[in-house]
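Discussion board: Methods & Data

I've been asked by a reviewer to show the raw model output for two of the constructs in my manuscript, not just the figures. I'm not sure how much to include, so I'm pasting the format here to get opinions. Each protein appears as its amino acid sequence followed by a line of discrete structure tokens. Is this the kind of thing reviewers expect to see in a supplement, or should I convert it first? Here is construct A:
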Amino acid sequence: MKQTPQQNQSEPVATEVDQLREMLSRDQSKRARRLLKTMHPAKIASLLERLTPQQRVDALHQLDARTEPKVLSYLSTALRTQLAYDLDADMTQPKNGASPTDGRVDEEPETQLRLVLDALDQGKLKRIARLFHTLHPARIAGLLESLPATERARVWDMVEGERTAKVLRHLHEEVRRRLAAEMDLEHLIEAARGLEPDDLVDLIQDLPTATGRQILDAMDQRERERLQSMLSYPENTAGGLMNMDQVEVRSNIKVGTLLRYLRLREELPPNTDKLFVIDRKHRYQGILRTERVLTARPETSVSDLMETDFEPVPADQKSDAVAQRFEQEDLNSAPVIDAEGRLLGRITIDDVVDVIREQSAHALLGMAGLDEETDMFAPVLASSRRRAVWLGINLITAFLAAWVIGLFEGTLQHVVALAVLMPIVASMGGIAGSQTLTLVIRGLATGQLGSGNTRILLLKEMGIGLLNGLLWALVVAALAIVWFGNWTIGGIIAVAILLNLLCAAASGVVIPLLMSRIGIDPALAGSVVLTTVTDIVGFFAFLGLATLILL
């Protein structure tokens, strides 16, 4: 019998229904997810109508937050109501001993992460969506960063469309770049529209040039011009940090007029603790604090209330200097000007907190040569490549220390005790030097250390090195004498430790200062150089003295 056209058209649907049923029955949620992603919402709705109630619920778990409403719109009211009821019942029932998610979310981050991982294992992604609905975007970002890259992509689809931009804002640069690269352009542009201009600039800078250009082209002309102006400044400068949502006023208006203008705006930009006064040529004149506006008489002129001595931030000033000023002066916001004194925008405390956080992460990771590895679950190849460089540098420095030891091969063959005690000298110098190095790097970062007080700090650290050197030289010498019964070896190691601790103190001050002067970040390479110096000096002093005295 010849089939009708309608029957021919139904065959692919029936085939896909069978495929979907098989995937769901075998708990192959990832395969089911990939299959559903290729379909039109109307097609998915057609498939759901042919499944059992439990299969419908399992299939719905695999739909992302943007596709689900479209699919539900194609279902009948009765089926949509029943499906919502079944889904709600499914999400409140524990499976395989897992904890139910009935809307009561434990505040502990570890518990939230476990709920996400359990939901991923069970293919119950709607449980993640329900959890995310109750969390702040910053906490969602933290959970995403705690997941491996493959699972992160699945969970990312569970973020509600209107909250995508807010979550992107709180993600670390590397994670944000990877997730944005996996989004389709339409969704990415939609998310970009929800970002503040300064956050949008950061996102565009993280994306490939072509993608960033497409986002810019999708904005209206005024917004595009603002973004291009901000993108013209380097990322690590005040111009790269600033936003352009400031409130500008003229000095010749009255407070009553200003209040009417503010009421017409209906809302003020976040962190608006001061208004910026400009002249007719848009040049910065001073600030007007909001509390003074609220308490002044309506007939008072802005020129009588403004502060003209508040220093603006030059657009080309480095971001770490901006952060330092905010910290020292307890600022919430500050105006940014160009070389001609024109007001460009403002920097707010939330931008500065991001800078401080990045500086802290940079210093911590840099000590181990992991400066760029902000993503804990970055791909293996990329992470291996980054770490290989520093392992190679460390190997070179290790060979330098080994070469020094090799110079005294004859001495070590005659006096075996020296080989046993030798690591103690290098270790003591390395620890003492690291303490000084950390203190100096912190001083450089906070601006507490400059050319005027460097000599004082050097003398202080040398004094500490001398006192600690004498103390621990005597302790180690006594232990060496008791161990090997040789007073000469005890004296040699005592002198070597004293010399190495003095060298470590001096190196801990001088090395970061020299690196900073020639443009090398001491947080990134200081510890490697310091360890090399203390190892070489320690081995040379100990083995050299032993060669002179014992042989």
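Construct B, same format:
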Amino acid sequence: MLRNFSALLLFFSLTIGQVGLCQQVVFPEVILKDIPTDVQVQSEKTLNFLVLNGDTIEVKKAGEVYVMKVQLSNDDIHFENPNISFEKPLVIPGWLSLLPPLIAIVLALIFKEVLSSLFIGIFIGAATIGYYGGGISGIFAAFFTVLDHYILNALLDTGHISVILFSVIIGAIVALISKNGGMQGVVNRLVKFATNRKSGMLTSYFLGLAIFFDDYANTLVVGNTMRPITDRLKISRQKLAYIVDSTAAPIAAVAFITTWIGAELTYISDGISKIELQQGVVIDESAYGIFVNSLGYSFYPVFTLFFVFFMLYKQRDFGPMYKAEKKAIAEGIMAEATTNKELEEFEPVKNAKMKAYNAIVPVFIVIAGTFIGLLVTGLSSAHAELLANGVDLSNGTWAAVGTEGGGEVGFFRKLGIVIGNADSYLALLWASMTGLAVAIIMTIAQRIMNLKETMDTVVMGINTMMPAVVILILAWSLAGVTESLSTAEYLKAFFGSDFSHVWVIPALTFVLSAFIAFSTGSSWSTMALMYPLVIPLSFAVASADPNFSEMAILYNTIASVLAGSVLGDHCSPISDTTILSSLATSCDHIEHVRTQMPYALTVGAVALFVGVIPAAFGVPSLVVFGVGILLLYLIVHFVGKKV
């Protein structure tokens, strides 16, 4: 009896000991064959390495977990430690990860129909995962996975829901200020400035520059506000969509104070920390200072803004845009050219007062409210962060912002840090909801429409946004598929071996960022992938060559990530910002992509060969900007045809 008790006690002791030493390796659902992949390791004891399939792999601490980089050729996985628990991933060939976005893009461009193209792209990705996970039956199950996994996950993202809500609320505001005569009042006033095609385009352009702090707000407000005016002036929807799309992201990319800065500063700060750790150097510049210096190398966004201005001022076009403009002049903006035919119902009611303030006040509230919301949420976030870091807040949060390292900082830098920490989605929602409420109150108070008619108009405005919202949801779902298939990781590994010569780094960074953004439809995911890779790499390679300045190469590379991302977005039919531009201007989405792409690629080529590469060799930025801007002017003058 005592012997049995001792054996039982020994068994429980060994079991408890094994459980205590148990570690868990969390593989992603899909790992690409022979592609290095980051894998999480959860362990209560300190780890330095693990032995996988006979290979010793270094393990590094990353927050609450450990991370190791594995490279698998098949799903035969064996750890030396038998206490390690894990679920086997699906190991698939890397080239398969490119199929979903490429098929979606090709089908959209061939058939000029984006809904089915996006759905097929999502299905191809889901079917690939389903086949490797469950064979032929997995392909059939993938049809339902498109809905219950990818589309549902896209809708569960609070950022995505915020964009949808903001879009439909803007649609409701546009419908309301159209019905109550406010939009017609604005048109009547702007006609004084937008008296012809040229002034109408330039008005749209400068309005796009004015709303610099957020690309979503810029796109939706400018597109919806200027559309009735440009329609009247026989400016094609394709041209308006191009103006909107090519001012929104570029101005947001180079402005000192935007909703993009928070993410960029985080990536730059993390990259600088890696440089200091790996190279044993100390970089005195702050992340914000590095960002500001990198703007001197932001060739594509700056060149785009000048190129658009030249096109509008000279009234010249080429390629598909020239044909679209000629057709608009000859035929006007016909109902068939609109994406949302419900807009024809937006004629003012009989007793509408054609007062511009009925539109100006709600739109101004959206613009000003967004900026105020950015300040409020940014200060709130900064307050919590400063409090956690033990910074003295006795003089207020604003006074303490930017002083963590000691010393004083300027007003604009403080403002940039605050807006960088802001929640842009909340700011957009607060502003748009307030603008809608004011529009409703003004309409009812002036007895232009009663409550029922007003709310019917609000619903009608929401309905006009539904086709574009569906496209957005499918685009996000496709992005989820590319994330599951590690498409961006495959592209990074595919081009990774080419990062060898110093001057190549910024140029290849620009091209690779553009290609990833084009394939995934997301500049944000491109930045998240590229910044951690190229920031330490560019500094390390440049510091080893005395012929190059490591900081100049670093600035150029940082700017090339953002610039390439914007270029890729401008060319991609699955990009959310491109889709929003089509939505806001009621332009056929594929027509927008088809007419914008030649212009974007032209500017991209000039940015690469006249901007990025010469700057990497040490040519001063002012010289590069001057030559590039002059070349773009000459292209417009000699290649463009007078419309």
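Answer (T.O., handling editor elsewhere):
This is acceptable in a supplement if you add a one-line summary per construct. For B, something like: Strands lie at 23-26, 30-32, 37-42, 49-52, 55-62, 65-70, 84-86, 90-92, 316-317, 641-642.
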